[in-house]
Amino acid sequence: MKLSDFKYPLPRNLIAKQPANPRDHSRLMVLNRADETISERKFNEIADYFQKGDCLAINETRVFQARLYGKKEKTNAKIEVFLLRELNAEENIWDVIVDPARKVRIGNKIYFDDGKLWCEVIDNTTSRGRTVRFNHKGDFFKIIDRIGLTPLPHYIKRDATNKDKESYQTVYARVVGAVAAPTAGLHFTKALLKKLEAKGVKIAPVVLHIGLGTFRTVEVEDLTKHKMDSEYFEISSETANIINKTIDSKHNVFVVGTSTCRAVESSVTVDGHVKPARGWTDKFIFPPFSFKVTDRLITNFHLPESTLLMLAGAFAGHEFLMHGYKKAIKEGYRFYSYGDAMLIV
User: Fold this and answer.
1) pTM given for the model
2) CA distance 143 to 157
3) Assigned architecture for domain 3-63+165-344
4) Beta strands 296-300 and 253-256: pairing type?
5) Distances (CA, A) of 242 to 6, 151, 200, 268, 294
6) What architecture is the 67-147 domain classified under in CATH?
7) Where are the domains of the chain?
8) What is the C-alpha to C-alpha distance for residues 47 and 192, in angstroms, rounded to an integer?
9) What are the backbone dihedrals phi and psi of residue 240, each rounded to the nearest 5 degrees, phi first?
């Protein structure tokens, strides 16, 4: 398939700027691949599609306050430093993106929190990318949790607020390391998860720390030439056992979001089971693709020509998925990170 196959027009008024409240009251579009029918529900009714013995794979990554604003030494010019990933914990070295990049050179120092925290630029990586070494006292993540801002996606045209610290985070977020939320999981509440567990559904947590590459533009028409950014993931032995028992008992593995899907499909054995793993994945899933683990996919409505849309298209079938998107636009569904949800069965 080609990049242009995943292009569609979206009215800007359908881009959600705020989450549903309560979060499980978002709309849910259900795509049934067997007969290519589409039904419409509320997300809090999703338990109707589960049976005892199924499992729910979720991504426990936790978003940190990755957007910092500081002042450059001597000139006091305002500089945005967007934290991407920690390269060396002992030496406090990070990959970051800076803006405006033209003002930030190797050797420059940027000060935050009235000088209590500062970093020195030690290398250039891309046109806007830099490697920096932070100098601080105390727990770094506690500091940035206090002074940083929630890294809302660029298409949410407003400033982040304190409310976003909670709303742009799943209720099961546990392991700090993501700069973007696994947004399909934003629809779940603790009550809904308990309802699923009471029904006999096992929860299978994985970790995949979503990077800024999730928003990176695909620039090649030939999708086989696109290279995904690597992202760190973990699948525990306990989670692998839960998923494998579900597979062996002929029940369904429900996967929450494209990040969770990429994690489990990156760690598949020859006989179609999941193995415990810890490492980096740059797996790019686009049509055609043979899913080994994922039986049901819970996802959001994604950006045109995005790798997330391509994964959903690989699972649902490209034409069927785009038919669903056309219907969603016509009926005023809310799109992207804070938008409505889709269940593909």
Assistant:
1) 0.93
2) 26
3) 3-Layer(aba) Sandwich (3.40)
4) parallel
5) 34, 33, 12, 14, 13
6) Beta Barrel (2.40)
7) 3-63+165-344, 67-147
8) 8
9) -60, -40
